[in-house]
Amino acid sequence: MACSVMWFRRDLRLGDNPALLEAAASGDTVLPLFVLDPRLWDSAGRPRQAYLLASLESLRAQIGGLVVRCGDPAQEVARVVAEAGASNVYIAADYGPYGTKRDADVQRNLHDVAVPLVRVGSPYAVAPGRVLNQQGNSYQVFTPFATAWRHHGWRAPVEAPSQVKWDWSYESASLPEARVPDGITLPTAGEEAALTKWRAFASHGLATYDVDRNRPDLDATSRMSVHLKWGEIHPRTMLADLALSDAPEKAVDRFRTELAWREFYADVLARRPDSATEYYRPQLAAMAYDEPGDQFVAWQEGRTGFPIVDAGMRQLRAEGWMHNRVRMIVASFLVKDLHIDWRHGARYFMDSLVDADGASNQHGWQWVAGSGTDAAPYYRVFNPIDQGKKFDPQGVYIKRYVAELRDCPLDELHRPHNPIVDHAEERREALARYEAVRSR
Ligand SMILES: Cc1cc2nc3c(=O)[nH]c(=O)nc-3n(C[C@H](O)[C@H](O)[C@H](O)COP(=O)(O)OP(=O)(O)OC[C@H]3O[C@@H](n4cnc5c(N)ncnc54)[C@H](O)[C@@H]3O)c2cc1C
């Protein structure tokens, strides 16, 4: 019987998976494949590795089996195709710089044996490159992009295929060990966990999302980023539920806007692959930065003496995740109080986050560093003390992660405790460094 390969990558689910639906509809047996690519595996921190393995185990359990290969996908996919005599390889398209090149290499090898690499769908509601202005160009700025993205619209989710003739009776590598680092608690992985978490949030958390989303003490966001990262749920599924939600429209629309940020950054990165490693606005690349040293280590370890910064960095260490508002605060602190190039912080985040995503992470950092797509006419420097007071007013978040401040009275809690720098001084320094390159 003819065979098709379903090559899973960042789409570890069976529901709302158009590539899988098409593979199943071909009438062929479907070989479920995952290739553990050393280039991606070795650059992932242990929390992310551990999460991926758990997600793959969940997928394997759903299907009944999974063919795993380790190595360069360009060789491994072609090898599996040859062994199975497969006639098609189905994938969801990848738009990241590495994924685009990898898929082109795979396609070239498959072309030699006349097997097509069939791209169906993507990890986005609207694939990068599709939202264009009237001149046919991509948007440079978020707000008009988001308006046009909404206007463009997206397809309805597709059902999981009712019947797939799976065939996993091929040699399969065993997955490596990835022990969860001590003290880290990871979310439950897999499609079922993603759907359960999403539905709970849609029923109980969404209604107040617009009001509370900036409050790390309230745990008022969806925590869906890790599930979106691995494609355990498709954003279209979420958008379809949002359209039917009876939560207040302001809250629903705010959530839709956050999903639009994810799509915007993917769009920007697809258009400017260099922005994964280079300054999106090159002007700021010339700014004077300090080499990372002891202060960088203190930042990583949550020992800066600024309570909200330390709480965030310790949350990252404990959970492989950090609240969005606090990501902005700690990033600003690294770039503007410690004068360290954003790329050092972005690399540390990519290592540490379970939801680490090249587009959202690099552009989240560039936004904070002032070198990204943001059109702010001034150089924004977050005040970590004011931010703490405003977004963690009772200090609940700080006390959750900074054990030594648990007994600290509220009127002293937000002030620095043995700080490694003086914020007012470093703010002046940051603005002076900015002035030196601003008019270039
Ligand atoms: C410096 C920095 C680094 C970041 N790195 C990442 C990263 O590696 N991976 C990642 O998924 N997000 C990243 N973000 C964006 C954001 O912080 C996370 O998506 C969010 O905190 C995830 O929590 P949540 O799922 O509860 O979000 P919710 O508030 O519930 O939002 C719902 C979804 O919308 C998307 N989203 C929300 N905010 C953003 C945003 N600012 N940019 C892009 N997408 C967004 C995410 O997919 C998120 O899951 C970063 C932000 C900053 C400032």
Features:
single chain, 440 residues, mainly alpha, Rossmann fold, Serine Threonine Protein Phosphatase 5, Tetratricopeptide repeat, DNA Cyclobutane Dipyrimidine Photolyase, subunit A, domain 3, 3 domains, five-stranded parallel sheet, 5 strands, 49% helix, 6% strand, binds flavin-adenine dinucleotide
The CATH homologous superfamily name of the largest domain equals DNA Cyclobutane Dipyrimidine Photolyase, subunit A, domain 3
Order of secondary-structure elements: EHEHHEHEHEHHHHHHHHHHHHHHH
What's the main sheet like?
5 strands, parallel
User: Any idea of the CATH topology of the largest domain?
Assistant: DNA Cyclobutane Dipyrimidine Photolyase, subunit A, domain 3
- Which class of the largest domain in CATH terms? Mainly Alpha
Roughly how many Å is the radius of gyration? Answer: 23 Å
Low-confidence runs of at least 5 consecutive residues: none
Count of folded domains: 3
Strand ordering within the main sheet: 3-2-1-4-5
End-to-end gap: 65 Å
The structure class reads mainly alpha
Strand content: 5-15%
The unique ligands bound to this protein are:
flavin-adenine dinucleotide
CATH architecture of the largest domain: Orthogonal Bundle
Number of helical runs?
20
Shape: globular
The multimeric state of the shown protein is: single chain
Average pLDDT, all residues: 95
What percent of the residues sit in helical stretches (DSSP H or I)? 40-55%
Written account of the structure:
The structure is a single chain. The chain folds into three domains: 3-122, HUPs (Rossmann fold), CATH 3.40.50; 125-156 and 192-271, Serine Threonine Protein Phosphatase 5, Tetratricopeptide repeat, CATH 1.25.40.80; 282-438, DNA Cyclobutane Dipyrimidine Photolyase, subunit A, domain 3. 49% of the residues lie in helices and 6% in strands. The protein has 20 helices and five strands. It has a five-stranded parallel beta sheet, sandwiched between helices. Helix 1 links the parallel strand 1 and strand 2. The radius of gyration is 23 Å and the shape is globular. Bound molecules: flavin-adenine dinucleotide. Flavin-adenine dinucleotide binds next to helix 9, helix 11, helix 14 and helix 16.
